Amino acid sequence: MLSRLMSGSSRSLEREYSCTVRLLDDSEYTCTIQRDAKGQYLFDLLCHHLNLLEKDYFGIRFVDPDKQRHWLEFTKSVVKQLRSQPPFTMCFRVKFYPADPAALKEEITRYLVFLQIKRDLYHGRLLCKTSDAALLAAYILQAEIGDYDSGKHPEGYSSKFQFFPKHSEKLERKIAEIHKTELSGQTPATSELNFLRKAQTLETYGVDPHPCKDVSGNAAFLAFTPFGFVVLQGNKRVHFIKWNEVTKLKFEGKTFYLYVSQKEEKKIILTYFAPTPEACKHLWKCGIENQAFYKLEKSSQVRTVSSSNLFFKGSRFRYSGRVAKEVMESSAKIKREPPEIHRAGMVPSRSCPSITHGPRLSSVPRTRRRAVHISIMEGLESLRDSAHSTPVRSSSHGDTFLPHVRSSRTESNERVAVIADEAYSPADSVLPTPVAEHSLELMLLSRQINGATCSIEEEKESEASTPTATEVEALGGELRALCQGHGGPEEEQVNKFVLSVLRLLLVTMGLLFVLLLLLIILTESDLDIAFFRDIRQTPEFEQFHYQYFCPLRRWFACKIRSVVSLLIDT
């Protein structure tokens, strides 16, 4: 009896798993879920913890054992999706950026979106000119520390905050100047709202980059925004396609296709190559979800999408949430006391506690960061304002998915300094998702090779195992070999043609085999089915049966008998 109870309790413990979710302010939420718990259950736990009602804009991101990022599907089991050993680690992030973040109903939602965009700015995904960068950073500073106070804020106080991957002393002075003179009196909520309004106007607002290569072999980044599909090469937006112009999204292996129907019935097919089939499938699923969320009027219009065709058995996927219009209508009906938001180091804006967080990302002083060389760049090129410019071949993009970052520091150069690197490099600082230590070393090494900075989270995680110069050189060769493993577009086209021919042959042989089986059933079986009986009674079938099939059958029977007799005689 006691043994049965102990075995039952051990089985129940085995069915429970510990999950840790990293929130947008870098704090962590830990909970326990059952083996068969769906993603929706975990997401609802998180939203309850955050006191969040406008939750459709957010999602949970994780990395599988093959280091591929995914969004957690709410209709499927958490354990089956992660395919890794517990305890599980995931990240809570903005999945669908609001088209107008200032129109969000509740301050708690705006605050979380503010934290996400602040991360995008820090990790190099939100590019802008120096003037815009200084204003955005000043809004963050006002929200962080409030009004300027000469007694509390000595000269150079803005340098204690890291707003961007790299910035110059000149930019720091500009940030402090705006904070001192233009933002006095703004509450944290007002500063965050102004920050969102400014960020919304930038070209790379809402960009979550997917590294790919175009048909010419040039590196590119594909992204889905609230307004459409975006392709970025270098620091230029080379394609922008509105959602109502996108007719179909499809993938086969590593190849991603975007079907576009523009004015005057002009149809275009854009083709890109992802690093792996898994990355291409993730890109396709993100596109399906974003198109459904932003384009459709209601969730009842959502349909299951398939990437298959006559010769290719692809994947099927269906977006399971509400669409943007429904979310806005639902938000307008929210009627409750605004929940309190505890901002680190600031006076709470409401009187009812609901969410308490630790230190915010930008509050970490530079002296506490790992000693990694971060060059202060003063002369950097801006993101050019070009919606449909011609893609430019860049030698730095030719051989690898990790673009090189070039920087220059010239004190005498009086050109306007901007925050965007010459090479648009969002892959240098993707969202800090949990990966293995070896993968972290490769990521950090690639950034050192390319001259890019490391994010704070990755520096802290890899602090204990910094590679030596010899290891760096060895790992560098390994990393370059891994990056160059992707075949060229011509090889991809040849492989696709061979696979298509093989599929055509297999389908033809299958059809012939099915027709042969049907013919044998019609002529040799005694099945008295109305369908077969009607076919047998037609004059054409009777003529075929007596003039062709019966002689052919006798000929085969004769040959088989002769072969059998020959075998018996020998």
TrEMBL record:
Annotated stretches, region: Disordered: 344-367, 385-407
A GO BP annotation: positive regulation of cell adhesion
Localization of this protein: Cell junction, Adherens junction
Highest rank taxon of the organism: Eukaryota
SMART domains membership: B41, FA, FERM_C
Xref: InterPro entries: Band_41_domain, Ez/rad/moesin-like, FA, FERM/acyl-CoA-bd_prot_sf, FERM_2, FERM_central, FERM_CS, FERM_domain
Principal place of residence: other
UniProt GO molecular function: cytoskeletal protein binding; integrin binding; protein kinase binding
Keywords: Cell junction, Membrane, Phosphoprotein, Transmembrane, Transmembrane helix
Domain FERM: 17-298
Membrane-spanning ranges: 501-523
Listed Gene3D superfamilies: 1.20.80.10, Phosphatidylinositol 3-kinase Catalytic Subunit, Chain A, domain 1, Pleckstrin-homology domain (PH domain)/Phosphotyrosine-binding domain (PTB)
Function: May be involved in regulation of cell migration. May regulate cell-matrix interactions via its interaction with ITGB5 and modifying ITGB5 cytoplasmic tail interactions such as with FERMT2 and TLN1. May regulate ROCK1 kinase activity possibly involved in regulation of actin stress fiber formation.
Name of the protein in its database record: FERM domain-containing protein 5
Biological source species: Aotus nancymaae (Ma's night monkey)
